[in-house]
Amino acid sequence: MAALKRVQQWATFARVWHIFDASWQNPFESAQVLKKYLMGLYKPIYHPMNECGDHVIVINSADIALPGDEWVKRVYFHHTGYPGGASWTLAWDLHKKDPTLVLKKAVYNSMDGNLQRRYTMERLHIFPDSKVPGALMKNVSNQIRQIRPMPKRLDEYTEKEVKEFPKIIDLPKDYILR
């Protein structure tokens, strides 16, 4: 086997480590992107019964953004297995208890029909902030692009950018704000 083909084959079968920043991202749209890497859907050797997916590290899961009023309307069901053990938890309450669970459940539900999703989820590493253990960060070789660009906060603009921003209206000098 030629050296080039050997490297190409190694790259095809290797498990790559990806990192994804979940700040200001919709977890349900992000889950579709993360699923592609966790299951290995982008690899030429993909087969539903072949476990060829990669590892994905998700940072800043505490800063996810649900669309509209999903924080107060989305409900998560849990059952303990005992009689009367059913409970429904609102998204904001679940996120307050554990900031990684909403994204984790979104990724898990996006892989519906995958017979190996329990094992696939073991390759998903979610962190509520940007503090990732160094042992994991040494493995990262790819960054997954965010779906939406993260907006800039007002305090992040420089004084020069604020002055150069075009004005919609110039108020007269004798105008009084109430």
From TrEMBL:
SUPFAM superfamilies annotated for this entry?
Ribosomal protein L13
Q: Which Pfam families match?
A: Ribosomal_L13
The record's section on InterPro entries has: Ribosomal_uL13 (IPR005822), Ribosomal_uL13_bac-type (IPR005823), Ribosomal_uL13_sf (IPR036899)
UniProt keyword list: Ribonucleoprotein, Ribosomal protein
The UniProt record lists the keyword Oxidoreductase: no
One GO MF term: mRNA binding
Q: Which GO terms describe its cellular component?
A: mitochondrial large ribosomal subunit
- The keyword Ribonucleoprotein appears for this protein: yes
GO terms for biological process, alphabetical? negative regulation of translation; translation
Give the similarity note. Answer: Belongs to the universal ribosomal protein uL13 family.
Q: Which HAMAP family match?
A: Ribosomal_uL13
Name this polypeptide is given: 39S ribosomal protein L13, mitochondrial
> Which organism is this entry from?
Photinus pyralis (Common eastern firefly)
